[in-house]
Design goal:
Blueprint lengths: L1 E8 L4 H6 L1 H9 L5 E8 L6 E9 L3 H10 L1 H5 L2 E9 L18 E9 L15 E8 L8 E8 L2 H5 L7 E9 L7
Antiparallel strand pairs: 1-3, 1-4, 2-3, 2-8, 4-6, 5-7, 5-8, 6-7
Amino acid sequence: MEFFCYHRDRHGSLALRKELLEAHWSYMDRYAAEMIARGPTFAADGETPIGSVHILDLPDPAAARAFAFDEPNYQAGAYRDVLLRRWRNLLGRTMWDFPGGRTGGNRYLVLGLGAGHAADLDVPPDQHDLIAYGPLLPDDGATWLGTAALVRAADRDEARAVLTPERYAEIEVHDWAFGGRPS
């Protein structure tokens, strides 16, 4: 089962996140084989971390909850909340398989919170800039709750356009970068 996890930073927690950086990476190293995508989101300045995205393939919802809530930054209070949902990998690949590579161009997390009937259940026809894409679902996987995508785009408006705006209660667009230990 695939899961989308987005930890949102608590205001003023940057120093704590920096202090726990090695603990965070060590924790994530334990999940390397399960990772589909990962990386930080940033404020409008493009430098200040505001969250952390992890998309993983885990055995069940209990394993996903353990992953999300045992994470060192969460345990220390660096995060204000966690969005954890089942997710379906419509591209069938990891971010490391993205043909566009790890660098070059602007990268974004596009998070559409659903309103009403399901939307964007098929991969958009122009998918060469999609890094990860799929629906957000409850634990049983039966109901569409929204869509999460990682995209390369010229700007936030182009990134937002990957989703059908009128089908969502809210669409968030955050600067995002490939995550993991520096090489």
